[in-house]
Specification:
Elements (H helix, E strand, L loop, with lengths): L5 H11 L19 H17 L6 H13 L8 H12 L3 H13 L3 H5 L12 H13 L3 H14 L8 E2 L5 H11 L6 E6 L6 H8 L8 E4 L4 H9 L3 H5 L3 E4 L11 E8 L2 H14 L13 H10 L5 H6 L7 H7 L18 H5 L5 H15 E6 L3 H11 L4 E2 L19 H9 L1 H17 L1 H9 L1
Parallel strand pairs: 2-4, 2-5, 3-4, 5-6
Antiparallel strand pairs: 1-7
Length: about 450
């Protein structure tokens, strides 16, 4: 099997195309070398040719293709995975494949087709968490009764484990609080936007949210390839944007969608721990967007960020949601110049750094407060990450909440007099980030005190 990463062939496609369907989800051999989808398609093609020739197909061969397909099921824009799994279910009577079909339909946003599907619990079929997207699909199709019934069946069939999901139909106190918050979710034309700040618990949150939110109804704007996805989003019709249930925005960009009112939520983190986490995570984890700093120690990295004006980075990303930044982005990224939308190689390549470079600290703090108060329906805190995640999930209108694995307990230092010189310099240089973190953490603790208490007791 090819070891080519998804990231490799996405980047290859980005370099090879400037306009058109550059983000269609299947990038293929004409652009770069083989990838895992090509391996799946080849194995499936060989299987079906043998089947058409009348050969007896061993069950192990069918299982192998099914495993490959299920492993690549996310963001199946061209429908290849759904077609493969459906064929295995019908042509070979494969029970696990048949059980996966409603899950794949739900994830693709094909809600009406899910209503008629009968859930089947079989060996090698979907697990408890895989079925949560079907709960979402049934509820959004107007069949809350079927969604509730499915939750009851899941609860009866799968033994409860640590970090079990919450639902609005649960009887325990935490589930009831989740149901109360669910009722307060923004409605009408509001479109929830997870404004994903780096190294602030966002990856743990979005992994959990993606188990609930169909990828077919989510606009994905990731860090490295985000401009390509934004270019596509800016061409959306009102009908297309009307189908969306959520935006995952990891690349800051001032934009609007036709017919929708963007309603943001985010999680803030203590700036010293956020910068420290970013430095060490980039060293240890391949694929994270780097900075151009090659400092061998964290203290030297602190010097780099201060000397290069990479301070108050969280606030400067947040402020891109302020209406005052729209003009700068429209000037820098005119719709008539598609070549402006391309993948980035480092954090320093992102436009928000230059777009906010002239803002004074007073102006930055004022504008952040304005946009957080007016355009964000929830501002969570890393100090209470699990409670923030549950509140955020409820605010999306989800009927279930997959408990986030990261509790936010690491990397939230208590400030003390014996703090290192590097930490003190960082805190002073990132004063706006510090004020926002302290201010909105206190506000979250005030507004969500019952939820915080319940999370601590479960």
């Amino acid at each position: 099997m090819s070891t080519t990463r998804t990231l490799d062939w996405q980047q290859g496609f980005a370099r090879g195309k400037a306009t058109g369907a550059k983000w269609r989800g299947a990038f293929g051999p004409p652009v770069v070398g083989r990838n895992r989808r090509d391996d799946l398609l080849q194995e499936f093609s060989d299987l079906m040719v043998r089947h058409a020739r009348g050969e007896e197909i061993p069950a192990s061969n069918v299982q192998s293709v099914r495993r490959l397909a299920i492993a690549k099921r996310h963001r199946d824009w061209d429908g290849l995975i759904l077609a493969v799994v459906s064929t295995l279910a019908t042509a070979f009577g494969n029970k696990p494949a048949r059980a996966w079909v409603p899950v794949l339909l739900a994830a693709a946003g094909r809600f009406d087709e899910v209503v008629d599907a009968e859930p089947e619990f079989v060996t090698n079929g979907p697990e408890y968490q895989d079925w949560l997207v079907v709960v979402t699909a049934l509820a959004k199709a107007g069949r809350e009764d079927l969604a509730h019934a499915l939750v009851d069946r899941l609860t009866a069939h799968f033994p409860p484990g640590e970090g079990a999901s919450l639902t609005v139909w649960g009887d325990d106190s935490l589930s009831k609080e989740f149901a109360r918050l669910h009722q307060q979710a923004p409605g009408g034309a509001a479109l929830p936007v997870f404004f994903h700040l780096p190294f602030s618990g966002g990856t743990s949150m979005i992994v959990s949210l993606k188990r609930l939110m169909p990828w077919g109804r989510m606009l994905e704007i990731n860090r490295r390839q985000g401009l390509l996805q934004i270019e596509h989003a800016l061409q959306m019709s009102a009908e297309d944007s009307g189908r969306l249930m959520m935006v995952h925005q990891h690349h800051p960009f001032a934009f609007q969608l036709p017919g929708r009112e963007l309603s943001h939520f985010t999680v803030l983190r203590d700036p010293v721990s956020q910068i420290r986490s970013g430095y060490f995570k980039r060293l240890s984890t391949p694929g994270i967007v780097p900075t151009r700093d090659e400092s061998p120690t964290f203290d030297q990295h602190v010097d780099y960020t201060i000397e290069h004006g990479m301070t108050n980075m969280l606030a400067r990303q947040i402020v891109t949601t302020h209406p005052a930044l729209l003009k700068a982005y429209r000037t820098q990224f005119p719709a008539s110049r598609s070549g402006k939308f391309e993948a980035i190689g480092a954090e320093e390549d992102m436009f928000w750094l230059s777009a906010t470079s002239e803002l004074s600290e007073d102006a930055l703090l004022r504008m952040c407060r304005e946009t957080l108060d007016e355009r964000f329906h929830l501002v969570g805190t890393m100090r209470h990450l699990e409670a923030s995640h549950i509140a955020a999930t409820a605010s999306t209108g989800s009927y279930a909440a997959d408990r986030v694995g990261h509790r936010g307990r690491s990397g939230q230092p208590e400030r003390s007099e014996d703090e290192s010189d590097a930490a003190r310099r960082l805190r002073e240089a990132n004063g706006v980030d510090q004020v926002l973190y302290d201010e909105y953490t206190a506000r979250f603790e005030r507004d969500y005190a019952p939820l915080i208490e319940l999370v601590a007791s479960h």
